[in-house]
Amino acid sequence: MGHREDLLEGAKRCLLAKGFMRTTARDIVKESGTNLASIGYHYGSKDALLAQAYVALVEAMGDAFEGDGGLDKTPPGSLERFERVWSNIVGTMREPGSVWRLSMEIVALGDRLPEVRDHLAAAQREAGRGLVPLLMGGREEDVSDDTADTLGTFYVTLMTGLIAQWTFDPKSAPDGAQLAAGLRRVMQAATDAAP
What we know:
It comes from Streptomyces parvulus. By secondary structure, the chain is an all-alpha fold. Helix content is 75%, strand content 0%. It has one domain (54-193). Helix 8 (114-136) packs across helix 9 (145-168).
């Protein structure tokens, strides 16, 4: 690997071990076997590197969201698929040292990490674009901007709330079955209210 890749891998390890605020440029350099100047050269800043490392960690979770291949047995857009996907996502939150705790650190730090926040805010649409085919079927590259901005945003909002609940109180946080039951109730109420 080159310095760029070494830095990214070192930053990922540092994030999981220390989080955003406690990770220093020197920590990343030590973990990656590179030098301080290479952070600026390849990424512009430590915060930009940490933001890219976080996005890479989240993207690596995609396979876990699909689970053991059982999604092929559930119809796209069905409540069964909704429950299975969210159960798989919740499974990633139950793991010790979950990457999702970093999300809550970003939310809590807000304006103190503007470069990280701005980079991750730009990644939100793409996160939603990735969740849509997982739940609804199809291919990510076929998800329109309108669908990413509506359905994708809905899924990202649900994910963010779920992360917050699992971080704050994992004992009472919902699982996939509870989320599907809630969605059933919302759908029933909407059907009952329709003229």
